[in-house]
TrEMBL record:
InterPro entries in UniProt: TM_pro_TauE-like, TSUP
Record membrane topology: Multi-pass membrane protein
Matching PANTHER family: MEMBRANE TRANSPORTER PROTEIN YFCA-RELATED, TRANSMEMBRANE PROTEIN YFCA
Name of the protein this chain belongs to: Probable membrane transporter protein
Amino acid sequence: MNISLHTFLVVCPLVFLAGLVDAIGGGGGLISLPAFLIAGLPPHAAIATNKISSPFGTALATYRFAKAKLINLKLAAPAVVAAICGSFIGAQISLRVPEHILSYVLMVILPISAFLVLNKKLFNDEGSEEITLNRRTYLTATIAAFIVGCYDGFYGPGTGTFLIIAFTVFAHLNIQTANAQAKVINLTTNLTALAIFLYNGQGVLSLGLASAACNMLGGYIGAGLVMKNGSKIARPSIVFVLFLLALKALGVY
């Protein structure tokens, strides 16, 4: 696939914004994937290229949680296995969906994902920091990892948020502890889906790596901003990018 300078000029600023938004308010994936679609990449290539840049920030966050000893390896192990299976299936399904149908599917999934990610009422931060390793916790982690893994393999944005919701609502963990477990699973689903897409010849490596650098720079700057309400930037930014994507889909530009 030939990538022009115009593509970089469209994608890189938007992916930088995605990193900024993700660091201060969450939901960066709802900007980064549409950025590739707005730039004119076909759906399969857009999803694959987005996954090239995604693991970098997730890996850094996972390392920080691991260093703080917030990741429970006994709980993470079966969840990671389930996540690999789910992401593998989701990516295979995505690759088998024709491009024109996938375009319509993404147009439906995007606003739904945005609503769920931005709806903070779905989060429950009254859970415990301690993880009780019982049947309920293992089932929650394994089932959530498989289902959300399928979603991440097929599409992606909002994966971490959906995992956090599952852990806080069903496993009764607080957001910080839930986030730590979610990052391990999210990194696994990212890498699994990326491997499948690259094996099938999807994704633009040069654009993906440039996007990764922009995303990490945005995340670094966003993490340094002292903001009490990150949604003041996150919500309008996501809505704006989805609006641009809608115009693109309607053939306005």
